[in-house]
Each structure stands twice: as C-alpha cells, then as structure tokens.
# Entry
Amino acid sequence: MRGLPRAPLRESPLARFCLVAYVLLVAYASLYPLVGWRVPGGSAFAFLAAPWPRYVTAFDLVANFLGYLPYGLLCALVLRPRLAAGGSTLLAALSAAALSLTLEALQSLLPARIPSNLDVVANITGATCGGLAGVGLAPGLLGGGPLRRLRDATLVPGVATDFGLTLLGLWLFAQLNPATLLFGTGDLRDLLAGSGERHAATLFVSTEAVTAAANLVAVALLASVMARPQAPLLRLVAGLIGIALLVKTLAFAILMRAEHVLAWLTPGAQLGLALGAVLALAALRLSRTARLALAAVLLMAATVLVNLSPPNPYFAATLKVWEQGHFLNFNGLTHIVSAAWPFAALTYLVYLATSRLRDLLR
# Structure
C-alpha cells in the first residue's frame, strides 16, 4: 500500500528574512569592532596559502562551526522549494564558502582580527551540516508538518507576519546580552561619542521595573497583532515571554557559575515582570489600532528610559568577563541587535498602522 503523497514544499518569506538577518549578524560578528581599517601589505587572500594556525583552541573551532550551522540550515530552507535536496545542500555550502572567504579577507584589513584558513574550513563544514539538517527539516517546516499547521492556525498569513516573527526572533537574541536591563533595548550610549549624564544608582530598581514592564507589554502587543482572532493569544504571549526569560537565564548560565544563573532576577526585574503581566492582560483587550499605537508609545518611552538608566549595581563586576576574552565578538553582536531593535520594531508598527489605514480608506 502506497503512503500518502507528501505536501508540496512552499516558499517561506520567514526563512528568507531570517537568512538575510543572519548574514548581517555573521558579517558584523566577523568584522567587529570595525575600527582601524588599513590596507594590507600583500594579498587579502594570502591566509589561504598560510600554514595551519599554530595556536588553535576547541572553542574557536566549535564557535566557527556553530556560527555557520544556522546559515546552512536557513539557506537550504530558502532553496529547497526550487532545488533538489542535493542541490540545496551544495549551494548552501558554496555560498557559505563565498561568504566566509569574503569576510576572512576583509579581516586582513582590521588590525584586531586575524584571518585563518582553518576558520574557513570550520565555517564550510558547519554550513554543510546545517544544509543537510535544513533539507531534512524542509518537509515538516515548508510542507504540511505540525509547525506549518500551527502557524496557519494561529497566525495571520502574509509577508508582514513573517517579518514580525523575524523581529521577535531578534528580540529573543538580544536577551542573550546580560549587560542590558531585563527586556531593555535601544541603549545607544556606547555607540555615541558622548554617553551623557546618568542618574544616581538609587533609581536603578524603579528604572528597571518600568523598563521591563513597558517592554513586556509592547512585545505582547506586537505579537498580538500577528495572531488570528481565534488563536490562544494569552498562551502564545506567555510562551514568548517564557522563552525570553529562559534565554536570559542561559546567558547567565554561560557567564556565571550555576548558583548565580538567576542573578538577572533583581528586585526591579521582579517588579517589572509582575507589573507588565497585569498591564499586558488589560492592553491585549484593546482594539488592533489601539494596540499598535500603545506598543509604539511604550517602545519609545522604554528606549528613552534605558538611555537614562544608571549602571547595574547588582553584577557590574561580573560583566567584565562578558566584555573580554571569548565573549568579545558576541558581546558586540548582541549589543548592536539590542540597540537597533526598538527602532526596527517602531518602523514595523508604523507600517502595520499605515496598512490598516489604507484598508479602511478603500
């Protein structure tokens, strides 16, 4: 007896958005801190013919492998509806090679970075494994699998929703930076020439509480405008916030010893979570237009507050570990995502509001 025919693989704008975002993240992490550009004395590709690096750590190899694993997976998901499994994997590996070679060559222009042929090998290997994983996951993600059915049942169809999901993914990624306030994004002080005057540390608890509450409500409202009317909205929002808290805990688990993984749960964070949960329950009952407007206002207010907040007095010394050594590039990456996220989210909210207005005027 023949099995049921497989559902056709549908192209995924979400996979394309995630792939573009991931390429930008990889490029930024590879070239961080992007200062001191110079013209190399020889060819920018001279590292390819150089001997294997004398000092190689397992951390560097694993980091390069894992760094390109998602790239290969996303690339395969983008290509699979149009190409066969073998072609998708091969093109994912070849494009990863081109990307890795380009970024390694650009590293020769930066005094703080050292290009390596071994890094290229690890990158291509990671992308190839990711491509194989993407090919294997494609039927479930792009066909009629449970995740596809869940998305169709709970989220509004369309490219706007896919872009919103990408934004939420980047928001979760930003939570990996332990230096930020809970859910706090948009801190531009380190990116500007002058950091400005900060308020006294005694205001930290109230500042973090308001920041966490405002961002929690704003993210809940942002997620709500992508959900279908019949979707279990409260469960979806609770799951999103729960994942964000797990990500924050993971960041501290990597940075600190096991007994300090909840160091982020400061008095201000606890108050902000409680206040934000109560306000979100009320705000989710508003009309769609009101939710869009309130989310934008809260994001702007929280961003201003983050840039006026005092230093975190609870684990300031511990954060020096995050800003040095193996975490240097990752720290810069999470910081730039965190700094840019509220402005991208505001642009998205404005787009949704204007689209809604155009629909009403028709």
Observations:
- The first helix runs from residue 13 to 31.
